[in-house]
Amino acid sequence: MSKSLKLYLGAAAGTVVVLGTAYAAANSAVDYPEVTVTYTKPVLQAEAPAVVVAKAVEAPAAAPAQTAAAPVQVAEAHQARTTATDAMPEVSTEAGRFGLGRAALPEEVAAWNHDIMPDGSNLPVGSGDVWTGDEVFADHCASCHGDFAEGRDNWPKLAGGQGTLADKDPLKTVGSYWPYLSTTFDYIRRSMPFGNAQSLTDDDVYAITAYILYSNDLVDDDFVLSNETFMDVEMPNAEGFIVDDRETTEAHFWAEPCMENCKDSVEITMRASVLDVTPDEGAASDETGPPVEEQPAAPQADAVTEPAAAEPAAPQIDMALAAEGEGVFKKCKSCHQVGDGAKNRTGPMLNGVVGATIGQVEGFKYSNDMAALGEAGRSWTAEDLNAFLEKPKDFLKKTKMSFAGLRKEEDRLAVIEYLKTFQ
After folding, report:
1. Over pLDDT 90: what percentage of the chain?
2. Residue 313 has what pLDDT?
3. 187: which of 205, 262, 331, 353 lies 20 to 30 Å off by Cα?
């Protein structure tokens, strides 16, 4: 052992002896009174409160200055522990339970219990009509779901899709897929509007639900949904769901899985034909098929010069009424464009629509019934436009347009006058 190491160990031992002696002297010099602290100890079984006797931790004023620091630090630690144990909840005497907390009060349960059952259980008292729902929906829901519940961008559609559930790419909406109206009401009341959940009144929820039903042609425009009429509504897909009983009905198919002779590698041999994502507009189509033979061009007939047809006279336009129509047309802008650069969106662009053949805007896919009207030579007269805008599905039952309609005739006439300015 080196000489320096021997000196270090000797000095360290001496320091320990000195500190120990000083601490003992300090404790013997100060007479601490005894204090009894009682606390409830959390246990699984019933147990009598433990009584702990501890030394007082306050240093008297007469204590030597050099020994006061250590007792004060100990005092703070003991004080913190005493405060924590005083705040401990009482322990349940029931075996196997920790007993933390307390039973929720009835009003606390009611504040969170929003479940609405398919039989109407727990429905709040209230009511709302279709047209009030139209206004509330426009204020709180249309930014995501479209003015007519037709969906916007990647936000879900709430209307349409009837008869598509057996298709390759079904459209699942409240009207086509959801089996119970209680699911719609419960979800709106609990989670909507997005970012401001549970801010709607019960009457607002009834009104929005009524409007969604109307947008799916399940109720008339004068329908009032309430806790009393709720169960009168029949959902088209109510019989489309069954109880999952495979555990008993299909048990005879089950077998132990084979975990032997597995392949060394896995290869992807097929890909999904339909992906529920926004397609890449610039991507080339993956569809393949037999080449299409080019047909020889039909012989051109000799050009025949015909007199130019006289252009129809420009319609007389009430500009003041058209200005009013521009304001009303805001309800149409989410689906239709007009003016320079107008393009087809959810609905066709409407330049030149007044007097034009029905269902003939290039590049837009109309419903079969709408296209048939155009093929029959029918055109959009002011009278037909007025009738269509009042209630589209009364004018043409299977129209793709889910707009509820404009109730006021002055609004319809103003919109038609406004559309004339884009002839």
Report:
1. 27
2. 55
3. 331
Task: Indicate the pTM of the whole model.
Answer: 0.44
Q: What is the largest CA-CA distance in the chain?
A: 130
The answer to whether the beta carbons of residues 344 and 356 sit under 8 Å apart is no
Q: What is the pLDDT of residues 3-28, one digit of tens each?
A: 444 444 454 445 544 445 444 444 44
Helix (H) or strand (E) holding 131: helix 130-140
What are the angstrom distances between the C-alpha of 124 and each of 113, 120, 196, 203, 214?
A: 11, 9, 20, 9, 21
In 3D space, the residue among 113, 120, 117 whose CA is nearest the CA of residue 228 turns out to be: 120
- Sign of the torsion angle spanned by Cα atoms 22, 25, 31, 33: positive
Cα(188)–Cα(207) distance, integer angstroms: 11
- In degrees, rounded to 5, the angle at the alpha carbon of residue 130 between the alpha carbons of residues 214 and 405 is 65
Measured distance CA(161)–CA(335) in Å, rounded: 18
Q: Which residues contact 383 (CB under 8 A, 6 or more apart)?
A: none
Give per-residue pLDDT as tens, 386-398. Answer: 899 888 888 887 7
Map residue 249 onto helix, strand or coil.
helix
Angle at 162 between CA 147 and CA 175, to 5 degrees: 55
Cα 188 to Cα 205: distance, rounded to the nearest angstrom: 7
Query: Cα(196)–Cα(119) distance, rounded to whole angstroms?
Result: 28
**So what's the pLDDT on residue 18?**
44
